[in-house]
Design brief:
The chain has 283 residues and is an alpha/beta fold. The chain is 36% helix and 20% strand. It has one domain.
Length: 283
């Protein structure tokens, strides 16, 4: 699986400047962590599911980016980071595709990852018909305990909206948790750094803060069939991200989910590939 490494490599580089002219690796008001995180999930999912590859090669599926889903029963709306769906009408002959998002998002791939991507069928970014897979990424980088209600509520509303729109759609949550002991918050520090002042450094209580987030993620409903309520899979990547320009790395020791755990990134990909193959073999 390559998604977590692609994400850490991407977040190691500075993003665009905020309104004060300060550049950050992570900013809670930016979607760079979620869009590239979801691109990596789609990359690994496409590599793992031979049926999805067949559907992509035959033009049966497309990508939707920042797609608005609407719960049919309640009218609730939710913007999903990325969806894999049936096309809604004719697909434009020219336009962005799954592969072209690498350049658009400025994702850096290794030679091995680029070779893997070159060997996969492409998917156009096009108007969405029936959603097959809906991806939602959320991050908890600092103020872990304070962030838990928001994290839970935003993820819980996501799967309710996805399955309110289509009970067959596979809803995936990808949660990114920061295990660094210190963090420089853009919300607290942007104005001061722009004025040349030293930043205020937030201190985390690790590994307790990471464990608290993982415990909350475990409370989010999950379903084992399309008659239940909850996400079809949840994956967690634990990062060391100080947000000071230093390289971002994966934290893979406990309490990070271990290989074989339900929330391990690889377990999420394998489960979703199997569910996709079983659920959508008829399309």
């Amino acid at each position: 699986m390559h998604g977590p490494e692609i994400l850490t490599r991407y977040l190691s580089a500075m993003g665009p400047a905020d309104k004060n002219g300060v550049r950050w690796q992570y900013h809670s008001r930016s979607d760079r962590h979620s869009k590239v995180g979801c691109w990596g999930v789609a990359f690994d999912l496409l590599r793992t599911s031979s049926l999805m590859q067949s559907h992509a090669a035959s033009g049966k599926v497309i990508l939707g980016v920042n797609h608005e889903m609407r719960d049919y029963g309640t009218g609730r709306k939710k913007d999903l980071d990325l969806v894999i769906a049936r096309p809604n009408g004719d697909v434009p002959a020219k336009g962005p595709t799954f592969k072209s998002l690498v350049e658009q998002y400025q994702i850096v791939l290794t030679a091995e990852e680029q070779s893997m991507l070159d060997g996969l069928p492409d998917m156009p970014v096009a108007p969405v018909g029936a959603v097959l897979v809906a991806l939602e990424a959320k991050a908890c980088m600092t103020a872990h305990v304070k962030s838990l209600p928001r994290l839970y509520d935003e993820l819980n509303s996501s799967h309710l909206c996805v399955h309110g729109a289509s009970v067959q759609a596979l809803a995936i949550a990808y949660v990114q948790v920061n295990h660094a002991e210190t963090f420089i918050s853009p919300i607290i520090n942007s104005k001061d750094i722009a004025r040349g002042l030293d930043p205020e450094i937030s201190v985390h209580k690790q590994p307790a803060d990471t464990q608290r987030v993982l415990n909350k993620v475990a409370e989010i409903p999950r379903r084992s069939n399309n008659k239940g309520t909850g996400f079809d899979a949840i994956g967690v990547t634990v990062l060391d991200l100080v947000n000071d320009g230093s390289p971002v790395t994966l934290f893979e020791a406990p309490p990070a989910p271990q290989r074989g755990d339900h929330f391990h990134y690889g377990s999420m990909i394998v489960r979703m590939a199997n569910e996709y193959d079983a659920t959508f073999a008829h399309i």
